[in-house]
Amino acid sequence: MTDKLRALGVAFLNARPLWESLKDDARVDLDLARPSALARALAENEADVGLLPVAAAATIGDLRLLRNMAIGARGKVRSVSIVSERPLHELESIALDLSSRTSVVLARLLLARRKLTPHLFATEPAQAIAGVKDRTGALVIGDAALDVETRFPYRLDLAEDWFEWTGLPFVFAAWFARAGAIDAEQEDILRVAKQKGLSRVDAIAKEHGARSGLDESSLRAYLTESIRYDLGDEELRGLERFWAEAAQAGLLPRATARFEQPSSTSGSSSASTSSSPSRPSLDTLLSRAADGERLSAADGERLLREGSFFELGLAADAVRRRKHPKGVVTYIVDRNVNYTNVCTTSCRFCAFYRPVGHPEGYVLTREVLGQKLQEVVDAGGVQILLQGGLNPDLPIGWYEDLFRWIKKEYRLGLHALSPEEILHLARLEDLSVRQVLEKLHAAGLDSVPGGGAEILVDRVRRKIAKAKCTSEEWLGVMRVAHHMGLRSSATMMYGTVDTLEDRIQHLVKIRDLQDETGGFTAFFCWDYQFEKGTHLAPGENGTHLYLRTQAVARLMLDNVDHVGASWVTQGPAVGQVALRFGADDFGSVMFEENVVSSAGTTFGINADKIEGRIRQAGFKAVRRNVRYEWLNEPG
């Protein structure tokens, strides 16, 4: 290999000995990132090798572990702890620093072992620490944990607790690479970097002490006694034990340590890992998923690429039956109202929007809106799905007045404003996302639709809608909404410039946030609806791919209860088939739809026809609300 090695390291103190000398190596392009950002970059092929949290490695799947280089501990680690003012068993909630998924999964395992179930919520490290009081604790990670090592009266060191439980070391992170992305010479570069870094531990401790104000001798002891940088037989057993415990708990996919090439390197010859074990068969993956086991991204890619069409459907149907054993399919009576088509994002795939000042731009009047809302009320509807473009002439006060009016006059639920619209209002009004959501919630907002997700991979988003928010911003709005108690749907529009791998990464990001918040009620997917006049040629699409994609989504999203059939884009007949490919919801009665219909899709059916379709497919029909609560008995 002649290209530079693209390496990603972690900016934590404990990682410095593994990457510090790489900064001056002309053969390496080194970037530093938070562990969570590092995992995303490696998953999306923006790096060849990364100092990856081991939980993230299991989630990605099919990565190769480099020999004898890791960040671990045999007993007390000092830098991964739950801190609190009260004993652990008295805590009602714990704030989680999500910098490292490994530490979060380990915390969940150790709490479950004690049969403790405090409310877990995510926040930034500084906020987590500041919020420790009374019955609220915090999981603190890395340098932030060292900074507060003696501040709180109660402290559970996670690596020490793991060792007391298992008698094994704990491995937090290691160098991982995609299969074939790194050769033996490049692996040696990293090994030599470790040796050079360990020879500079005293200097590293001194530099960090001068910068942080922490005691230099304490930092030296941390780097030489608490942290272990080897990956021998005991560490490998500890790693595989962690992966096994997390998989059994449904927190991670099954994982096994795999090496790129056989080696006789001392300390890496355990029987379970000295050679790469064979991958599970597709039948095995389907069986595991049908039984509720978590799949890795690599597993999902294999199924989407190679899985038999009908076997995917059978497995997804098995998941549906396990989650919803009563044979019921739900639907909702609502209306999708696009209150304005004026938008500043100029998405290449959208035939609906009009730029500011365009003669065809509109904002619906209260009179027109009132007619639409009354039709919903007269039909027994329960909510409005309200979305539109990013119109700079509509301040947040306009939305607050509108929401209050809708609630007062029509008493309908408000499933309104996608994350993109909420971010637009935050920028327009110079408010935080939380402040915008609080104002809208006070005015009547009940839940947040999942529009604007498209594909949650920024490389794709930059090509199809460069003015839109990033994937992390979209997820961030949903995170705030969920923590406020609002619920939302999750969506995926594929078939533009995205790849199979991009679609799976999208699903993994939805699943990861759902692990954190539990706020997604349902998932819907559809393919890009092309129309002449848009600025983006269609990619992969069609009924066969739609059903395959929905089935794999049902298998991947083990923590999302509901999957909806996208009959609006695929047609009612395909919607019926989708009920045997993992869907348990038939979506909404379609009074009108303006966005996909702008691209030529014009399917529309009423409540009676929806119920007829559901019964013809062999299910009982039930009306629901936005939280998927039944509004009548199955019929």
What's the helix and strand layout?
Blueprint: E1 5-10, H1 16-19, E2 28-33, H2 35-43, E3 49-53, H3 54-60, E4 63-73, E5 80-84, E6 93-97, H4 101-113, E7 119-123, H5 125-130, E8 136-141, H6 143-147, E9 154-157, H7 158-166, E10 170-178, H8 184-199, H9 201-212, H10 216-226, H11 233-248, H12 282-290, H13 297-306, H14 309-323, E11 328-332, E12 334-338, H15 366-378, E13 383-387, H16 396-410, E14 413-416, H17 419-429, H18 433-443, E15 447-448, H19 458-464, H20 471-483, E16 487-494, H21 500-517, E17 520-527, H22 543-556, E18 562-564, H23 567-570, H24 572-578, E19 585-588, H25 607-616, E20 620-623
Parallel strand pairs: 1-2, 1-3, 6-7, 6-8, 11-19, 11-20, 12-13, 13-14, 15-16, 16-17, 17-18
Antiparallel strand pairs: 3-10, 4-10, 5-8, 5-9
Description of the structure:
Among the domains are: 80-166, D-Maltodextrin-Binding Protein, domain 2, CATH 3.40.190.10; 309-623, TIM Barrel, CATH 3.20.20. It is 42% helix and 17% strand. It has 25 helices and 20 strands. A 5-stranded mixed sheet has the order 2-1-3-10-4, with helices on both faces. A 5-stranded mixed sheet has the order 7-6-8-5-9. It has a 4-stranded parallel sheet with strand order 15-16-17-18, covered by helices on one side. Helix 9 packs across helix 10 (216-226) and helix 16 packs parallel to helix 18.
Number of helices: 25
Q: Name the average pLDDT.
A: 91
Q: Span from first to last CA?
A: 64 Å
- In the sheet with the most strands, the strands line up as 2-1-3-10-4
Our Rg estimate from Cα atoms comes to 26 Å
Query: Approximately what portion of the residues adopt beta-strand conformation?
Result: 15-25%
Q: Which regions contain 5 or more consecutive residues with pLDDT less than 50?
A: 262-275, 595-601
User: Which architecture name of the domain at 309-623 does CATH use?
Assistant: Alpha-Beta Barrel
Class from helix and strand fractions: alpha/beta
Briefly note the CATH topology name of the domain at 309-623.
TIM Barrel
Q: What's the overall geometry?
A: globular
**Total number of β-strand segments?**
20
Helix content: 40-55%
Q: Write down the CATH class of the domain at 309-623.
A: Alpha Beta
Q: What's the CATH superfamily of the domain at 309-623, by name?
A: Aldolase class I
For the sheet with most strands, the description reads:
5 strands, mixed
